[in-house]
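# step 3/5: fold
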Amino acid sequence: MPFGLESPIAFDAIANAAAEIQGQIGSIDEVWCVGGSGVLCRGLQQGMTGIKRFSVVQVGRELQPQDVGRATIYKHPLPFEKDAKKRPPFPSCSNYDAKGWEFVLRYGQGTRLFWNVMA
């Protein structure tokens, strides 16, 4: 399997799920996720049309602009194996998704969707 499951099948699955959720939620100003490979972030952009801002929190490998499409990259200062200091109010992987939550709170604006991969 390629890093991040980078494949057309994965992109289509993420895009379809994102489009369905966007249809159920309605108006969203920005979408946040964490990233190791950037596949999730690009898939969300593919499926969620009309969203003006996408942001990704880097929690491992150094992300490049081509990895995350048009998303803004924020770099979490802790090493990948260390747990987040500020935990979200929902189940979240302590050394991965949870690290994005503090950035959502600090830099997010408007109606935000935080895509939590694992609990």
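# step 4/5: annotate
The chain is about 35% helix and 15% strand.
# step 5/5: archive (pending)
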